[in-house]
Specification:
By secondary structure, the protein is α/β, with parallel strands linked by helices. It is 39% helix and 23% strand. The mean pLDDT is 96.
């Protein structure tokens, strides 16, 4: 058995979930600025996440769900997941984003599992609070080690794909490290670099 772990935002999905949600409240510019700082490693991921989600306070939960049902998948995402599964990989998504988005992608792409965060809502309105499995810069590295132990999969049989600084922690625990349209901080730790927005390009390295 082998393990493939994908980031979600700007990897399996073409864009950042939180930016799409921020558009609905007119705070996209503020959120995007914080996202870029975090992905470039210039702002602690946890601090960035807390600050960005706070800006979503007041958004109707049903509107957030509707937005997330229509997020654009990355070109080549479906083909890549399908081919990996044919080759015996368990295919999983780790996201510093949100379950309302990753659960949709799980169904569309037939992923084996997703791990992400939950936007807190009360009376149908987002409160600006968040919690979950992927809150910290170390979260992806911690989770990949747990999965490897549970599934008895080695580092040599592990592949990871991501684009930003919060993917660094999982890159340490995989033989194949794919930086996909990535920030320089992640490219420096990768052994496969893809700069074209087509995930299927990765298949020629598998």
């Amino acid at each position: 058995m082998k393990l493939a772990v994908f980031d979600f935002d700007s990897t399996l999905m073409n864009g950042e979930t939180i930016d799409f949600l921020a558009q609905a409240l007119g705070v996209e510019e503020q959120v995007t600025s914080l996202t870029q700082k975090a992905m470039n490693g210039k702002l602690d991921f946890f601090e960035s996440l807390i600050q960005r989600v706070k800006l979503l306070k007041g958004l109707k939960h049903k509107d957030a769900v509707k937005i997330c049902k229509n997020l654009p998948l990355m070109n080549g995402a479906a083909q890549s997941v399908s081919k990996l599964k044919e080759k015996g990989y368990k295919v999983v998504c780790f996201s510093g984003g949100f379950t309302i988005a990753t659960n949709v992608a799980k169904d569309k792409l037939h992923l084996d599992a997703t791990f992400s965060n939950i936007l807190h809502e009360k009376n149908g309105i987002l409160t600006g609070l968040v919690g979950g499995d992927m809150m910290f810069s170390s979260s992806k590295g911690d989770m990949i080690q747990k999965l490897q132990a549970i599934l008895n999969i080695t580092v040599e049989n592990t592949l990871v794909v991501g684009d930003g600084a919060n993917d660094l922690s999982m890159f340490k625990h995989a033989k194949q490290k794919i930086a996909f349209c990535a920030k320089d901080i992640l490219k420096n730790e990768a052994n496969i670099i893809i700069d074209e927005k087509d995930l299927s390009i990765m298949l020629k390295y598998i």
